[in-house]
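Hey forum,

I'm writing up a methods section and want to include a predicted complex as supplementary material. The small molecule is zinc ion. I've pasted the protein sequence and the SMILES. Can someone with a working setup run it? I'll credit the forum in the acknowledgements.
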Amino acid sequence: MGNHSLPQAKNFIERTLRKAVDPDPSRSQIDEMKLHFKWSCAYCGRDLKTAERKSHVDHLDAVGHRNHISNRVLSCDICNGDEKREQNWEQFLGMKCGSDADLRRERSQRIIDWQVKCGNPQAIDKEVAEQVKQSVYDCCAMFEEHYKRLRSMRKISNPETPKL
Ligand SMILES: [Zn+2]
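Reply by user p_vandermeer:
Happy to help. Structure tokens for the complex are below, copy them as they are.
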């Protein structure tokens, strides 16, 4: 909490409002994804069957950040959490496979097959995206205003403890 609570709350508001128009995949879609990737990391191939807690549902395209299942692949905690970040997935995959061109082709094809299988999601309507942005802005501004107002009341209702 502490100083980070306000930015964290704003981040949460943004993600929640975005999910109203771009929902997360369902549990059964995620199960199907795990099956497609044979319970191993789509990038490094690490076996995740017995390491459930280390398996993540990565965003392939992290910049566009669509939550749709076609933009999600099974990934280990290392690839998802520490290494890939905002990198383009094809570039990242190349890095993970090193000079093994066959391996790279195979993993890349598995990802492309997954995207094809899930169907191309329609891009979020520009007007809807604009509405989301506006809603995020309005909610965050209002949230911050209330937060600051209540914070200022803290000084009034909680005067400093007099020194004994
Ligand atoms: Zn990995």
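Some notes you might quote in the supplement: The pocket of zinc ion is lined by residues 41, 43-44, 46, 75-76, 78-79 (CB under 6 Å). The chain has two domains: 1-22+124-155, 24-122.
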